Amino acid sequence: MKHMEHDQTERRKNEHIDICLTEEVEGQGISTGLEKFRFKHRALPEIDFAEIDLSTEFLGKKVSSPFLISSMTGGTKRAWEINQRLAKSAEAEGWALGVGSMRAAIQEARSVYSFEVRKLAPSIPIFANIGAVQLNYGFTIEECKKAIDLIEADGLILHVNSLQEVFQPEGDTNFKNLLPKIEEVAKALEVPIGVKEVGMGIDSETATRLMEVGVDFIDVAGAGGTSWIKVESYRSHQTLREQAAEAFKGWGNATAECLIEIRKDLPNMPLIASGGLKNGVDAAKSIALGADLAGYGRALLHNAVDDSEQALSDQLKRIRFELQTAMFGIGASSIAELKQTQSLRQS
Asked: Could you tell me if residue 315 is left (phi over 0), alpha (psi between -120 and 50 degrees) or otherwise beta?
């Protein structure tokens, strides 16, 4: 039975990769909201482009740039190859790195290798990842600790993906009374614990409740990028779910909206912006709206399957250059100055 579950999980992970690479999986009728904001250009920036400093702190740890490769995949040979490329590029460019859901590695030792990224990325922050709902399906504090130990992680992300699970044919949909269990995990772990959505966004009320039970950081993972409802509808082969997915193609909280709400109500909460970010200007806008890090997921996937690794490295360099250039265009010489800028206007 255990091997059958592992094989099913492996098949699902490979299908997710294929669908995200080949199908149209962005939400429709909803955007990140970042396009509604523009920076007021400063013709005389009065700073030296070469001196712009992208280093910052996250969870008390100094990082050389405010970027995160968001949790994507793991549990298969193909995922291992992708994670290797992501880890090498993240280490070279100074990005933090989140791995995909580690449920497979915790349940089946033969999947562990696909998440072993620390040896390729010794200096950057790495985040382990478990579905929060698994706390209602047998996972305990021990499984959370195991996920951290397996990859020598600096923190743990619990992802919340309620609607994805509903549309997933084999989904786990009992999300009842998870807050007390998240609180138990937060109290027991010695590393920071964060919570992220997977593309539907975290609202301020939820973020506040998570903070109250001890969660250390939030990744908003807002709408406007990948819709996991659409992804699951492609693989369900069930008419009901395929048809119902149409009704939810515009569902979710826009990334910009999440950032503004949470930063207003929780001014000191460490905050990651992800969900539909594609370039360095998106990162600049997100940081100006309150984010501490900018996360990229599917936008990197096509280049992460490239055997040469050069395309992925070039993409990360380009995103960095775009952020630096945006900061130059408004006269912000540091991330701290970007966070305080008055140059971002709603258009």
From this structure: alpha
Dist CA 300 CA 316 (whole Å): 9
Question: In the chain, where are the structural domains located?
Answer: 2-35+59-316
Contact between 129 and 102 (Cβ < 8 Å): yes
3-state secondary structure of 345: strand
Nearest to 287 by CA among 65, 31, 48: 65
Task: Give, as one character, the DSSP assignment of residue 252.
Answer: S
Q: Higher pLDDT residue, 4 or 166?
A: 166
Q: Which of left, alpha, beta for 68 (phi over 0: left; psi -120 to 50: alpha)?
A: beta
Question: For 119-136, how does the pLDDT look when each residue is reduced to its tens digit (9 = 90+)?
Answer: 999 999 999 999 999 999
Assigned architecture for domain 2-35+59-316: Alpha-Beta Barrel (3.20)
Q: Is the pLDDT of residue 5 over 70?
A: no
218 near 207, Cβ under 8 Å?
Answer: yes
Predicted TM-score (pTM) above 0.70: yes
Q: Rounded CA gap, 208 and 267, in Å?
A: 11
Q: Under a CB-based contact definition with an 8 Å cutoff, are residues 107 and 147 in contact?
A: no
pLDDT at 91 (0 to 100)? 97
Q: Please say whether the beta carbons of 202 and 195 come within 8 A.
A: yes
Q: What CA–CA distance (Å, rounded) separates 231 from 259? A: 25
Do residues 113 and 119 touch, judged by C-beta distance below 8 A? Answer: no
Rounded Cα–Cα distance for residues 224 and 227 (Å): 8
pLDDT in tens, 60-104: 999 999 999 998 889 899 999 999 999 999 999 999 999 999 999
- Please give the pLDDT value at position 296: 98
Helix (H, G, I), strand (E, B) or coil at 303: helix
pLDDT at 203: 98
Residues with Cβ within 8 Å of residue 169, at least 6 apart in sequence: 232, 235, 236, 237, 238, 241
Q: Which residues contact 274 (CB under 8 A, 6 or more apart)?
A: 68, 70, 196, 219, 220, 221, 222, 225, 255, 294, 295, 296, 297
Contact 222, 32 (CB under 8 A): yes
